[in-house]
Amino acid sequence: MSKNNTEADVAFIQALAELLNKNELTELSVKREYGEDDSLDVRVVKQANIVTTQVAAPVMQAAPAAVAAPTAAAAPAAVEDPALHPGCVTSPMVGTAYLAPEPGATPFVAVGATVAEGQTVLIIEAMKTMNHIPAPRAGTVKRILVGDGTAVEYGAPLMIIE
Fold first, then answer.
1. What's the total number of domains in the chain?
2. pLDDT tens for residues 85-135?
3. CA 1/CA 4 separation, integer angstroms
4. Which of 28, 119, 138, 144 has its CA 20 to 30 A from that of 160?
5. Per DSSP, which regions of the chain are E strands?
6. Any keyword Membrane (predicted)?
């Protein structure tokens, strides 16, 4: 973010996220120049009904309102939220997730792979630094919730390890 325009930058990023949703875009990238050494680079990417940015909190899309009263069938949908799963591995930072150590290399893990506690399961690049994300527990990778090169937010679900 820029040095002096924090509130204005947040409003600008929120406007970009709204623009992304309103125009049914999947990605938007903008560079805002404030001066010689002061600029703001924003990349907003839409994935699976979630809008994420590299500098702001995710904005959830509103689901269409139901005309009838909620039924018992609606309850399992809430249970399927990966962020609520007890084996969910979440992002400890904002950045770009990579599933392999370098482009074209074998991914760190795949669905069905057994991992040991502390084993690197992916990398998150933040501020030109590659941060290895370890498995918080031993188990089997049940789902990988991010794609290679995907922008992630703090607390975003990355994978499920049971």
1. 2
2. 788 899 999 999 999 998 889 999 999 999 999 999 999 999 888 999 999
3. 9
4. 28
5. 27-35, 38-47, 50-53, 59-60, 88-90, 95-98, 114-115, 120-126, 129-134, 139-144, 150-152, 157-161
6. no
